[in-house]
Write a structure and sequence with these properties.
globular; 198 residues; mainly alpha; 78% helix
Length: 198
Amino acid sequence: MDQLLNLHTLIEILLGISLSAASGFRVFVPLLTLSAAAVFGHIDLPTNFDWIENPQALAVFAVASTLEIGGYFIPWFDHFLDIAATPASILVGTIVTAALAPDMNPLAQWTLALVAGGGTAGITKGLMNLVRATSTATSGGLGNPIVATVELVLAIVLSVLAVTLPLVAGIAVIGLLAIAISRLWQFFSRFRPSKLPQ
């Protein structure tokens, strides 16, 4: 029984982290997926997250997702979206992880949500900001629609995988986070001051 509870807890955490990672690619796609899964009875959210689990929220997230997706295909406007989407993705990552966190006291729940969910979203968003900046610098922004398409596909696949096969999604996210952290570390290590010769 305890093993079943531990497996269920692990699945809930992986589900939240996977949706958080997806929010680093597109902010509203994971919320749309979570809302759809809740509205159609695939996931039962806690009562304090009922605002996600209703048809009106589903419609709002669908419209927001459509506008966000379209905005990333407008040259240079995608950079303004990134500025707003970076803190928004961390917020969404925190919210979805809190909504799916196992039953625990609020302090532990929101700490887990902020560190695991918000942190995961921030790392994936940071990687994509770096990719988009590189694309803009090398192609003058002409390659950005390709980046936007890849981001969209990753957001959809990861969100759907999270609610259908959370263990598989969790493994994929762990691999993605390893790559993202490595790339970000390489990027920022170039700006460390070199040691002066003795």
